[in-house]
Design brief:
11 helices, single chain, alpha/beta, Rossmann fold, 18% strand, 8-stranded mixed β-sheet
Length: 264
């Protein structure tokens, strides 16, 4: 079981492929299985891919008390150190995109090229008003696992994708394969609500790709429009008729965008 030693605790990660280094950072309640095998398989053809589980998720050691997005970014830097990577391409989705923002802002030399997907930067114009998070929290509070997973399924995907029941069982299997304690998820939510890089995004020099689906019910599409406005040199790609987990709905296309951005 690969773990990065962070002194008194450890971070679980998985590694595959070969090529230039690529660190993938998941979002709230996310873990290694939520990337999906098709997406990871595509990326591993071109990159040395590392996926981590944030503190308190799966086999990664929890840290008592609240934490911030900055704390999670420093965890990711510590993982880079443990891997012996001076720098890497960094791609973060949702809360992972917030972590990636803080990572590049605080440690710009560690990031070759940056990908921010279906994420949020805080500040004026940013929004947490999407209906998905409340639907998921309400379902989680019932204690009914099936109801909670179903709410996550409906909230994270477009209406068209979710309507095909063949897509449900693979999502359910992935979602339940790694422990995601509710108290950790609530602390992740608190950290995300406090995140604000809006006044600093213009200072990011790493070439950046912004991706979002226009049917996102977890973090509204307008959030990436705001990020793109604050980063005028970034490339912005929209997945039409696509929900929050765009890399799951479009694994090959998502991997191709990242490959093109990072490798040219």
């Amino acid at each position: 079981m690969p773990t990065a030693n962070l002194g008194t605790r450890s971070l679980y990660y998985e590694r595959r492929g070969s090529g230039e280094p690529l660190l993938l950072i998941q979002g709230m309640a996310g873990h290694t299985r939520i990337w999906g095998e098709p997406f990871l398989t595509e990326l591993a053809r071109s990159f040395d891919v590392v996926t981590l589980e944030n503190r308190g998720i799966g086999e990664s050691t929890d840290v008592p008390g609240d934490f911030t997005i900055v704390d999670l970014a420093e965890d990711a830097v510590a993982l880079l150190d443990d891997l012996g990577w001076d720098d890497a391409h960094v791609a973060g989705v949702s809360m992972g995109g917030m972590i990636a923002q803080e990572l590049v802002l605080r440690h710009p030399a560690r990031v070759r090229r940056l990908v921010i997907a279906c994420s949020y930067c805080g500040g004026e114009g940013a929004s947490f008003r999407a209906s998905g998070p409340m639907r998921m929290m309400t379902a989680m509070n019932t204690g009914d696992v099936e109801q909670a997973v179903r709410a996550g399924y409906v909230s994270n995907f477009s209406a068209t994708f979710a309507a095909d029941e063949r897509n449900y069982e693979p999502f359910k299997a992935a979602a339940l394969s790694v422990a995601t304690p509710p108290n950790v998820i609530m602390r992740q939510a608190k950290a995300s609500f406090a995140h604000d890089t809006s006044a600093r995004l213009g200072g990011i020099e790493a070439p950046t790709l912004i991706i979002h689906g226009d049917e996102d019910n977890m973090l509204e599409y307008a959030n990436s429009q705001l990020i793109a406005k604050l980063m005028p040199t970034a490339t912005f790609h929209t997945f039409e008729d696509t929900g929050h987990m765009l890399w799951w709905e479009h694994p090959r296309e998502s991997a191709a965008l990242i490959r093109q951005h990072c490798l040219g």
